[in-house]
Design a protein that fits this description.
2 copies of one chain form a homodimer. Chain A is of the alpha+beta class. In chain A, helix 1 runs antiparallel to helix 2, helix 1 packs across helix 9 and helix 9 packs antiparallel against helix 10. The termini of chain A are far apart. Chains A, B: This is DUF917 domain-containing protein.
Chain lengths: 362, 362
């Protein structure tokens, strides 16, 4: 598998869907990856299971408020420096890169990074979706250390963090990111091939591409949302899926604070029922409620898409009056275990309602 | 020169005077140094001029709000780890340690560190006083890099910072320190012997000891403040000195905010004149005004001492109703050059009045 212009477009659209509102503007991410491929050639995409047990795999990502990520795109040198600083710290160069999450800019950025570094990119990630905090990744759930971790800003200031826990790394790096202007490049969770094989969410680059392609194909026949749901139902991870709401945005609150985009979006049903859906987000959409009753909840996916084109809408693109559909979908089983829910279930975000799988809501 | 129990007491008292209100509780610092000397032996104190040009000298210090430093004293392991992490980053062990400032806890801490590490301690520092921010040191004024810089907290979380300027390092480390609980151990400004010989403020360990001893001797004859001024006048650095005010504290505002102790102290003259002195501080005392007119200003020293015993009073020990004298004194010439005033003159602290040497005030 190699990315070209067409598959990159599909991939970025699919990754925006899996980003569930977070992860930054997929358009910018796609352009950056496209440019890097044009300049350095497309990186090889390899299966997680092809990795040697003792290979060194490094995730690379931007961290910060998506509203700011969109304005402070990666320049390239910052990516190279983050990988270089972490490699120096580990005393070893990486054998491959991997996305930490398959959502928004952090899914396309590793393509750019792999192209620049001439390294293969693993067809997998640490979430099968996107999440706002460093500890919210399968690698942490299953015991891989988040640190040493390299942070780099656009002025090439750099920081290496070693923390006793991924949670502590998150609080330190968040403070550093705010001090560096709300958006930074990080490389963290240095992984062995063995760890990637055991704990990554596999094949998500392919899956995101398939999601984007299904939407594009559906547009040709005038039914992109049906095509999207049809594709999701064929996947192992996202097969429990449905349209949760069909409405227009009537209220929107979005603050860039504590290093995140935090707020909620309220929609009114288009059929005149008067019913309202609220979606709360911290970068990513966390919980959807219809007239106060939960109908989908983190870590399951809650995606707001344009009701005509099924274009996934990142949080920062939501607008008053927009006509949207809200889609709910299951996440990979590895993201729903009790250990996983401890790290990124509703309680981790201060939500009182317990996790209920999307397929169990009436 | 070696420190023993008696000279440590004198030294800590003198360093509290030179700390001009900041630098943390000298009592705790002295106990820590005393304990380390009892356990590991007193470190050798060496002259700056005895250093080889290519020797590696590392400063070690606590950074944070003095109000918090006093509660989160160094545990020892954090000191060792800060030096270890910076040494690893530099690929080389230090040949000696040096205090970054000669004020409060950061003057006694390097004694503890040197004793633990079995390294000599240089009889010099980077200020000849104390200052609240990382860039406010002669080494930065004269072009030595503040980074790489190691930060360690009491849980042994560690961070290595590389920044494009000392000012940028300050803003990053301050954010990290706040995230780590307002008080951290740092090692920074890795220096060559040549740099120490050119840019350090020399003999300040001896001078601080002399100041403390003069106060102690003066107490025996009932005139500690006269003894203190008498000694200062014999020194090269602090010889322009005088009592600026004799009053009691009638107003005190002290906030632990942005990683500092910030506020002001207002005193009313004891002779019934009705005149008031205000002293503004950011950890250290910055400017003294009598009825609104400046009479001493940073980087010159402004020290509040007990009016009977001449005991130097750190900012966090000031109390309503306390009888005090305020003493002003010059700083070393290296700290008063135009380059130096750019970095830690009044403007660096947002004070509008220009620097005027203490000896030029009527």
């Amino acid at each position: 598998m190699k990315f070209d212009k067409k598959s990159l477009e599909d991939f970025a659209r699919g990754a925006a869907f899996l980003g569930t509102g977070g992860g930054g503007d997929p358009y910018i991410g796609r352009l950056l990856a496209q440019q890097a491929i044009a300049e350095y050639g497309a990186p090889e995409i390899i299966d997680a299971d092809s990795l040697d047990d003792d290979a060194l795999i490094l995730p690379i990502a931007m961290l910060g408020a998506p509203t700011v990520l969109a304005e402070k795109a990666a320049c390239g040198d910052d990516i190279d420096l983050a990988l270089k600083r972490l490699s120096e710290e580990l005393g070893r160069k990486p054998d491959a890169l991997i996305p930490i999450e398959i959502g928004g800019i952090n899914s396309t950025l590793p393509i750019m990074a792999a192209a620049r570094a001439g390294l293969p990119l693993v067809n997998a990630d640490g979430m099968g979706r996107a999440f706002p905090e460093i500890q919210m990744v399968s690698f942490n759930v299953y015991g891989c250390s988040a640190t040493p971790l390299a942070v780099v800003d656009e002025h090439m200031n750099s920081v290496i963090v070693r923390a006793s826990s991924a949670q502590k790394a998150e609080s330190l790096v968040r403070a550093i990111a705010v001090s560096m202007g709300m958006s930074v490049m990080i490389s963290c969770y240095p992984l062995s091939g063995k760890q990637v094989k055991a704990y990554a969410v596999k094949n998500t680059l392919s899956l995101a591409t398939g999601i984007g392609q299904a939407i594009a194909d559906g547009r040709k026949t005038g039914s992109p949302i049906e095509a999207l749901l049809g594709f999701l139902k064929t996947t192992e991870y996202y097969r429990h899926c449905k349209v949760l709401f069909d409405g227009k945005i009537t209220d929107l609150r979005r603050e860039t604070t504590r290093g995140f985009s935090i707020g909620h979006c309220i929609m009114t049903e288009l059929n005149g029922s008067g019913r309202e859906m609220s979606v709360e987000f911290q970068n990513e959409n966390l919980v959807a409620r219809i007239d106060g009753t939960v109908c989908a909840i983190v870590p399951d996916l809650i995606c707001i898409v344009d009701r005509e084109t099924a274009e996934p809408l990142p949080t920062e693109a939501l607008k008053y009056g927009q006509r949207v559909k809200v889609i709910g979908a299951s996440v990979p089983p590895i993201m729903r275990t009790p250990e996983a829910l401890n790290v990124f279930g509703p309680q981790a975000f201060g939500i009182n309602e317990p996790f209920t799988p999307i397929e169990e809501f009436k």
